[in-house]
What does this fold into?
Amino acid sequence: MTLLDNVTKSLPARLKAARTLAGLDQTHMAQLLNVRIATISSWENGHTEPSFSQVVRWVNETGADLEWISAGVECAPRDLNPEPTD
It folds into this structure.
């Protein structure tokens, strides 16, 4: 079983997966979002939910896709170097 096997099932699982895949621990994530470590833990354990603005900040810090984090929707990867069109 990999980290991504069950992550589409819940927001807390997707938050934790995005943070972990970004190489961030809860302490560093809390510093980046200017919240307490207990807040990060509470979000990742499903005890409370982050506000939409906090989810957007989470996405910005982890590089995760907003649709995937917020709704579990798989999105096509973005092409960071698209070929020019005529």
Q: What stands out?
A: The two ends are 45 Å apart (CA to CA). The chain is about 50% helix and 0% strand. The domain at 9-71 is CATH 1.10.260.40 (434 Repressor (Amino-terminal Domain)). Helices lie at 11-21, 26-33, 37-45, 52-62, 66-71.
